[in-house]
Amino acid sequence: MAKKKILIVDDEESLLSILSTRLKYAGFDVETAISGELALDMARAFAPHLVLLDIMMPGIDGFTVLSMLKNEKKTRSIVIVMLTSKGDQQAIERALSMGAVDYIVKPFNPARLVDKVKKALKIS
Fold it and tell me: How far apart (Å, rounded) are the C-alpha atoms in residues 25 and 76?
């Protein structure tokens, strides 16, 4: 079976590096994007199975990226998991109502994050 592709979107380069290493070790093909604009371009080109998406980024924020991905025919089936420090109930409900399948608040347990990614992709 081919590796599942994951796109990690966050403006913290150190977090991108840590998550990328962890998810590659877990057997995923991983790409990263440091901005919402780059995330949209990469989602269209890389065609990931799942996007780990931060909300608070300069330029286009995660809610806008989520909305745009879910409104484009080419990207609408991508599984979106929010990964953000914004843990208020209103943000959680907004993201889930927009089509995100899960919402992980930073700081997070890296092993649990891998489990949540597998669950979102329906991998046992």
Answer: 27
3 DSSP 8-state letter: P
- pLDDT tens string 57-90: 989 999 999 999 999 999 999 999 999 999 999 9
- Length of the chain equals 124
Count Cβ atoms below 10 Å from residue 30 Cβ, excluding itself.
Answer: 22
C-alpha distance from residue 35 to each of 25, 27, 29, 56, 109 (Å) = 24, 24, 19, 10, 23
CA separation for the pair 82, 9 (Å, rounded): 9
Tell me which H or E stretch contains 81. Answer: strand 79-84
Extract long-range pairs of 76-79: CB within 8 Å, 24+ residues apart: 78/43, 78/47, 78/48, 78/49, 78/50, 78/51, 79/49, 79/50, 79/51, 79/120, 79/121
pTM greater than 0.85:
yes
Distance CA 55, CA 63 (A): 6
